[in-house]
Specification:
alpha/beta, two-stranded parallel sheet, 26% strand
């Protein structure tokens, strides 16, 4: 983890009155929805994500507390063919 990234995470985690979700997508591409895979740690299995899938996940984040105060990595559930 990059030291600036680590410092930013430490600041967010220390601010108990701040709700946040950090979403880390890989390369975002113009493709159809394939569904998505999430990870809180470890490597992502694929290196792309469609704009549509990212938008769908961001709506899920906004509508629930499931990912509150978390850092989430996201990628496509299937290889993207363009």
């Amino acid at each position: 983890m990059h030291k600036d990234h680590k410092a930013a995470m430490e600041l967010l985690e220390a601010a108990k009155d701040v709700d946040f979700t950090i979403v880390e997508p890989p390369q975002i591409v113009d493709a159809v929805q394939y569904g998505y895979t999430l990870r809180e740690e470890g490597a992502l299995p694929l290196s792309q994500l469609s704009y549509q899938d990212l938008a769908a996940f961001m709506l899920e984040v906004a509508e629930s507390d499931k990912y509150k105060r978390k850092e989430i990595m996201i990628c496509s559930a299937k290889p993207i063919s363009r």
